[in-house]
Design brief:
Elements (H helix, E strand, L loop, with lengths): L1 E5 L6 E6 L6 E6 L9 H12 L2 E7 L1 H4 L8 H18 L6 E6 L1 H9 L7 E5 L14 H5 L5 E6 L13 E6 L9 H19 L1
Parallel strand pairs: 3-4, 3-5, 5-6, 6-7, 7-8
Antiparallel strand pairs: 1-2, 2-4
Keywords: Hydrolase
Protein name: Alpha/beta hydrolase
InterPro entries: AB_hydrolase_fold, KANL3/Tex30_Abhydrolase, NSL3/Tex30
Length: 203
């Protein structure tokens, strides 16, 4: 594992690299609003990706690197993410297709930046469709705006809602809630099967 600080317009981010034996593509994964890159679902997705021949960079946003718990505004998160993707794309993953992904808030960032960052596919873990108990405050437009192959892995009892499958979008339901801690092996299998299909297209 290699770790590096990456400059962004909003302070340094941190990237933790997990290498696959053969690099067919690279997956950048972001954390949730209040958590870090050691979340069980991120670890499960990392394991699945590296086994499938995909390098993984677990990306820690600048506010987390600086020791702050409250997340930065969306525009800052997106700008920092795109800066990391550009840096790592040139430094660690030249000529490889980049896949964006993350859990919860990180999934939203991946969706919002997919087009500008030329992501070949998007992986969403526990996408927060709406705040708990407030379905009228939907964020589905962020997910609907993604035009590349997308996988959403969602807990069956997620209080943040459940998106529907759509064109280019697969939704896989697993036991548990928003934390996605209940079936990490199921997450690994689901991500692995999806990557196998997607890599035939993008890699």
């Amino acid at each position: 594992m290699t770790s590096a600080e990456v400059p962004t317009p909003h302070g340094p981010a941190r990237a933790e690299l997990h290498c696959a034996e053969e690099g067919r593509a690279a997956l950048l994964l972001g954390h949730g609003a209040g958590g870090g890159v050691a979340a069980p679902d991120l670890v499960a997705a990392t394991r699945a990706a590296t086994t499938a021949g995909v390098h993984v960079a677990l990306v820690e946003q600048p506010y987390r690197v600086a020791g702050r718990r409250a997340p930065a505004p969306a525009k800052q998160l997106d700008a920092a993410w795109l800066a990391v993707a550009e840096d790592l794309g040139g430094r660690w993953f030249p000529e490889l297709p980049l896949l964006f992904g993350g859990r919860s808030s990180g999934a939203r960032v991946a969706c919002r930046t997919a087009a500008e960052g030329d992501a070949a596919a998007v992986l969403c873990l526990a996408f927060p469709v709406h705040p708990p108990g407030k379905p009228e405050k939907s964020r589905l437009d962020e997910l609907d705006g993604v035009e590349v192959p997308t996988l959403v892995v969602q807990g069956e009892r997620d209080a943040f809602g459940r998106p529907e499958s759509a064109h280019r979008r697969d939704v896989a339901l697993v036991p548990g809630d928003h934390s996605l801690k209940s079936d990490v092996d199921g997450i690994s299998r689901t991500v692995s099967e999806w990557l196998d299909r997607v890599l035939r297209i993008v890699a």
